[in-house]
Amino acid sequence: MGIISISLSEESIEALDNIQKAYGLKGRSEAVRRAISAAKAEAQDSEDLEGMVEGVLIIVKKDHTDPWMNLIQAKHESEIKTQLHSHLKDHKCLEVMVISSEAEKLTSMLKEIHSTGKADYVRFVRS
Questions:
Q1: Model confidence over 24-51: pLDDT tens digits?
Q2: How many domains does the chain have?
Q3: C-alpha distances in angstroms, 32 versus 68, 110, 122?
Q4: pLDDT at 1
Q5: How far apart are CA 18 and CA 33, in angstroms?
Q6: Exposed (0-12), middle (13-18) or buried (19+): which is 9, by Cβ within 10 Å?
Q7: Whether 99 and 64 share a structural domain
C-alpha cells in the first residue's frame, strides 16, 4: 500500500473525522479510503450512463449570491424539464431539477457543476 501526504482544510479534517466516527473506522486512512471508494462509485455511475436518461438532479450550492449555477442552467435549459430553487440557512441554496437528456449532455453538465468546486452536494438519481 502506498503512502501519500495531503493538505486538508480544518473543515475537511472535521469531515474526515466525522466519516471515521459514522462508519466506526479505525483511523483517518480508512476514512480516506471509504471516501475515495464512494467517489469512485459515483464517477462510475456517470460513466455508465448511455442513451436517453431521465431522473432528478439535486444540488446544494454554497452561496446563493453567486450566479454560476444560473449560467449552467441556461446552457442546459433544453435538458431541464422542471426546476425548484429554495434558500437554505447559511446563504446556501437547494436546486432540484427534473432532467431528460442524452447521457453525453448530462455528463457534460455534471462535469461543469463539479469542476466549479462551488457545490456542497451533487447527486443525480436516475429514474
A1: 999 999 989 888 888 887 777 777 778 9
A2: 2
A3: 29, 23, 19
A4: 84
A5: 14
A6: exposed
A7: yes
